[in-house]
Amino acid sequence: MKLLMFNTHEFWFRTFKNSLNEDNDEDIEKTVENSLVIFIHIEENDIERKERLVKKATDNITWLAKKTGRKRVVLHSFAHLSDSKSESTGAQDIFLALQEKLISRGLDTTMTPFGYLNEFRIQVLGDSLAKVWKSL
């Protein structure tokens, strides 16, 4: 699992195309302000390590939220951080488990629609903790 975490003023996205089910495209547009935006890549071997990875990712995101004073988190599937890619069903299960864990820790957590290609705009703060990379 790879995490690219951004401390943002604003994150805007709009669905472009459902890459998993082309017969089920939805038009969704949303803006989230003052949040951590987490680009997540699930690798092929991550499915078998789901429980441990969800805990480690939760710990990392929660740590960054405390350090930056953020209460909002956006999880975004971004399958461009590694050559290794998992199958979509297992990856989606990890995303849902991570979202549930973050909510249980008191973070207002949303997820961009899984399996969609999206347009997005992101305004990232300039400080050193505004851009954090983790390989779990």
From TrEMBL:
Q: Report the GO molecular function annotations.
A: ATP binding; threonine-tRNA ligase activity; zinc ion binding
Q: Where is the Threonyl-tRNA synthetase editing domain?
A: 1-135
- GO cellular component assignments: cytoplasm
Gene3D superfamilies (alphabetical)? D-tyrosyl-tRNA(Tyr) deacylase (3.50.80.10)
* Organism for this UniProt entry: Methanosphaerula palustris (strain ATCC BAA-1556 / DSM 19958 / E1-9c)
Q: What is this protein called?
A: Threonyl-tRNA synthetase editing domain-containing protein
Pfam families recorded:
tRNA-Thr_ED
